[in-house]
Design brief:
single chain; two-stranded antiparallel ribbon; 53% helix
Length: 216
């Protein structure tokens, strides 16, 4: 398991990119300690939040915190708006450092429809996050089937994948995070971020991405 430890003020926080959740035995113990014993049985979402180390009690699917959702949504929206304005630029993918191993640079450069299909996946991710769903590949693909006017068909037909677009979102969010990046996201959105509940999972970009089926 890849673990990175960072110091924040006088606190050392360890981030585990390949964390896959606590084992069932540990979750049972955590349930007894945090939920207690009694006639009520912990709900599925309570179990998921215990499994994935949620400390805010609000993580979507147990692992996507409100602050990370906000950061990912911002990157999906700004990425879509910015790349859509530059869609005629054949160097669009190079300028954004997009890694699309399934497609050759020449094919990306000569096909505006393929480039637009990729950019539309960012919109599909934004739709998913606005609906308070985790940006898992299946959720984003499902959003794409109902998003009129935002087809990614040409990109998929050329061999592209949803994962490449989601990886871009996660990487940009991580790079602007205040703990593992340059801190620019917090500098711009401190008021919005502080209004959201803090959680242990706020900075676990590698873990959350992996849980969504994305390797960054």
């Amino acid at each position: 398991m890849l673990t990175r430890c960072i110091r924040v003020m006088n606190t050392v926080m360890c981030l585990s990119d390949e964390f896959k959740g606590y084992p069932p035995e540990a979750v049972e113990c955590l349930a007894l300690l945090t939920i207690g014993v009694g006639p009520s049985i912990p709900s599925d979402i309570q179990i998921q939040r215990l499994k994935y180390g949620c400390t805010c009690g609000q993580c979507i699917d147990g692992f996507l915190s409100a602050r990370m959702r906000f950061a990912l949504l911002y990157q999906a929206e700004v990425g879509y708006d910015s790349m859509m304005m530059c869609l005629d630029d054949e160097d669009l993918f190079d300028d954004w450092d997009v890694h699309v191993p399934q497609l050759t640079p020449a094919r990306l450069a000569r096909s505006k429809a393929v480039r637009e299909g990729f950019v539309n996946i960012l919109q599909h991710a934004a739709i998913t996050l606005r609906e308070n769903k985790a940006p898992m590949v299946a959720n984003v693909r499902a959003a794409g089937t109902t998003a009129r006017g935002y087809s990614a068909g040409a990109f998929y037909q050329a061999g592209g994948t949803t994962e490449s677009a989601l990886a871009l979102i996660f990487k940009h969010a991580r790079d602007q995070d205040r703990w593992v990046g340059d801190g620019s996201h917090m500098e711009v959105f401190s008021e919005d971020v502080n209004a959201l509940p803090a959680c242990r999972n706020d900075h676990e970009f590698g873990f959350v991405a992996l849980t969504c089926g994305i390797k960054i």
